[in-house]
């Protein structure tokens, strides 16, 4: 039995704040303790018991419990908990803190989740409820809703309606413009692309340009991309596990690449049976072009234009993800140092309205580049490229419960922090780059571990 009275009440009247201002305070309090909570040695079984106690105390919903339980890493479970708690309101947060302190007394001694430990409280334009104003502490229920081994190659808050000032009242709240009644504002959920509306889940094209002998015969100084087949094979294997039909292509000249793309867009009758389209290009490149194996260039924008809504009717409204492992210039992303503490369901997009909707021709694209514009990207001749290997690892681990935008942020972090290359005595880095033109959440929806 959890004793909810063990936590002293705050001396600040946070419980008298409007719900949206409570949310802002709670975000500040939780963020102040996030790093310590992530570093704390939680035993997974004990942390699971902690979450169960929060559900029993009606602080978290069963939906929250399931979402946290599906995450394999405890530090990520802590992150998810920190996302959920501010939405639950001040009273529920105090219950959660009391349970935390009873189960982990050492965290209580350190003042984790304690607003008095914040050196500088946030300056908020807060409004207090009048003493007789109705308050609501119940939140909307979420249920509703560096490798240096081997050789490295270069691939070339809320809007609220104001109420009228009340006259009279007592104490400091008299005459204050307040919101009545205080309710948690409704937040529209971001719709998701359906992975079941059409007959097939997805189609994945993989173009792997590895052998550049023909380019060298045409007087181009392009080396073979050793290790690229590792990326291609792993990508094909993963997307097949995800339920995609995969079309691998190897060592294409520009004419051959044009023919393959034209066939998919114009002469592939089954294209309108897929819920998602993915194209992966593993190639030399520079300045927004891909270098084909004959040394001729193909503009990336020209490839993407073929699949826009005004050119490819079969993929209108369907998410299109382009993954491009290629250099985008000849600059090195040098290493810099930072301080250690620097920091088809009802929700389907097309079910939001029964009326026809218009979208831009360039909508529903997500483009993942291995590197930022103007910079080199790197490939290990034995293990494959930094970017593709991180991307595949993240998808394999997180595709069950995260959308691609969240997963690609994880990829950014893994590449940026996990790899560097010693080039002429200077450590150089790589930073992936993503362009998001999706109009909803794209989730690969795999129910089993890959």
Descriptive labels:
single chain; 450 residues; alpha/beta; six-stranded mixed β-sheet; 12 helices; 31% helix
Polypeptide structure, described:
It is a single chain. Strand 11 and strand 12 (384-385) form a beta hairpin. This protein has helices at residues 19-39, 44-56, 62-69, 74-84, 89-103, 105-110, 213-217, 228-241, 254-266, 300-305, 386-398, 404-418; strands at 152-154, 202-208, 244-250, 277-282, 284-286, 289-291, 297-299, 320-325, 333-334, 365-369, 378-380, 384-385, 421-423, 426-429, 433-436. The protein is of the alpha/beta class. Helix 2 runs antiparallel to helix 3 (62-69) and helix 11 packs across helix 12 (404-418). The longest helix is centred in the N-terminal third of the chain and has 21 residues, at 19-39. The chain is built from 12 helices and 15 strands. Residues 1-12, 119-150, 157-187, 338-347 and 349-354 have low confidence and may be disordered. It has a 6-stranded mixed β-sheet, with helices on one face. A 3-stranded antiparallel β-sheet has the order 1-11-12.
- How many distinct helices? 12
- Strand % is 5-15%
Strand order across the largest sheet: 3-2-4-8-10-15
Order of SSEs: HHHHHHEEHHEHEEEEHEEEEEHHEEE
Overall pLDDT score? 77
Q: Which outline best applies?
A: globular
The largest pleated sheet is described as: 6 strands, mixed
Rg (C-alpha, Å): 26 Å
Number of extended strands: 15
Give the low-confidence spans.
Answer: 1-12, 119-150, 157-187, 338-347, 349-354
């Amino acid at each position: 039995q959890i004793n909810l009275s063990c936590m002293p009440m705050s001396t600040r009247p946070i419980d008298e704040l409007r719900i949206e201002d409570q949310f802002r305070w709670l975000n500040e309090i939780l963020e102040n303790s996030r790093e310590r909570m992530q570093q704390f040695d939680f035993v997974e079984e004990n942390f699971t018991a902690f979450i169960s106690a929060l559900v029993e105390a009606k602080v978290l919903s069963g939906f929250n419990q399931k979402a946290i339980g599906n995450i394999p890493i405890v530090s990520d479970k802590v992150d998810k908990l920190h996302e959920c708690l501010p939405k639950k309101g001040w009273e529920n947060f105090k219950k959660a803190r009391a349970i935390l302190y009873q189960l982990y007394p050492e965290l209580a001694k350190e003042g984790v989740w304690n607003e008095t430990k914040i050196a500088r409280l946030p300056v908020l334009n807060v409004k207090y409820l009048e003493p007789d104003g109705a308050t609501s502490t119940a939140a909307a229920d979420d249920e509703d809703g560096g490798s240096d081994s081997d050789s490295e190659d270069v691939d070339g808050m809320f809007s609220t309606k104001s109420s009228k000032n009340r006259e009279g009242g007592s104490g400091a709240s008299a005459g204050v413009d307040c919101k009545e009644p205080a309710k948690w504002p409704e937040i529209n959920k971001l719709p998701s692309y359906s992975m079941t509306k059409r007959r097939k889940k997805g189609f994945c094209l993989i173009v792997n340009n590895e052998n550049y002998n023909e380019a060298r015969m045409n007087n181009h100084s392009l080396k073979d991309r050793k290790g690229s087949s590792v990326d291609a094979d792993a990508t094909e294997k993963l997307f097949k596990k995800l339920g995609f039909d995969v079309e691998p292509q190897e060592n294409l000249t520009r004419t051959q690449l044009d023919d393959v793309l034209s066939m998919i867009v114009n002469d592939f009758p089954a294209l309108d049976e897929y819920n998602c389209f993915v194209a992966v290009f593993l190639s030399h490149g520079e300045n927004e072009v891909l270098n084909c194996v004959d040394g001729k260039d193909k503009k990336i924008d020209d490839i993407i234009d073929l699949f826009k809504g005004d050119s490819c009717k079969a993929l209108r409204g369907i998410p299109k993800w382009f993954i491009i492992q290629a250099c985008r210039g000849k600059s090195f992303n040098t290493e810099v140092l930072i301080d250690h503490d620097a920091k088809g369901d009802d929700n389907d997009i097309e079910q939001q309205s029964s009326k026809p909707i218009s979208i831009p021709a360039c909508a529903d694209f997500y483009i993942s580049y291995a590197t930022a514009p103007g910079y080199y990207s790197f490939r290990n001749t034995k293990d494959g490229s930094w970017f593709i290997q991180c991307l595949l690892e993240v998808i394999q681990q997180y595709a069950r419960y995260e959308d691609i935008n969240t997963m690609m942020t994880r990829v950014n972090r893994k590449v940026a922090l996990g790899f560097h290359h010693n080039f002429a005595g200077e450590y150089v880095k790589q930073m992936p780059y993503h362009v998001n033109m999706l109009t909803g959440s794209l989730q690969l929806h795999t129910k089993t571990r890959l």
